[in-house]
Amino acid sequence: MVPKTHPRYRSLLNRDRIVEAFESGVLAKGGMIAHGRGETFDYLLGETTTPEALNAIKVTAALMVLSKNPVISINGNSVALAKDEFVKLARELNGKIEVNLFYRTTEREQKIKKLFEEDVKSGITLLGIDEADKKIPGIDHLRGKVSESGIYTADVVLVPLEDGDRAEALVKMGKTVIAIDLNPLSRTARKSTISIVDELTRCVPLITDYVVEYKKMDKLQLLKIVENYKNDENLKNTLIHISKRLNSMEI
Ligand code: ATP
Ligand code: MG
Q: Residue 31 domain-assigned?
């Protein structure tokens, strides 16, 4: 157990969750490496939600409220770190969560299914396992598997830690792809429609808060929030944010 007083409490807690998920078979080895890459970028961001991330979060919330069929895609890392946060967000929407694994094995699928058992009983629709019989064009068999009523027909897909290839293929299918990725330089961040450069345990509760608020607004107001957003500009501003921060740092 990490003591709450430790200056790196949050980060160590997340590491514990990642290790635990690996040991229980929910997370692949590669997931631990992906986490490490994320931690590095979080240092550069100052481990906070930047104004640019908040901008993308608000646009995300508005798009999800406007969406006819929003789907939250989850993988081993997101289950390990923020399962309950994703469930809360899904409950404010249509309840759809789709399992999407980079290293898909039946064992890992079933382990994740078990973790969601109670949530499914209370209204969450967990897709992407038994009924995933559609395919994303151009993506190899196991990584391309998606559900008909989930990602395949979704208009908006929230993809934490997606790989660049799939993000690009989903955009090509005409979907609004929202990535959560701490690395503003990743292919995922550059290929997605909206990129939230933030740590997922920090930003998912914020998305949910805005969804709750935006559900009270009318369509025109929501369209106004979305209207002027430019992802390339927002990513560029994130890089400027990082470089300004590094330039003004005292060691
Ligand atoms: P590319 O997107 O360039 O094709 P990739 O997706 O193959 O690369 P990975 O390292 O596997 O590269 O991707 C994992 C991504 O997830 C990294 O960019 C990392 O910054 C991000 N990441 C890891 N942990 C978190 C987290 N907790 N919250 C948000 N993003 C995270
Ligand atoms: Mg990526």
A: no
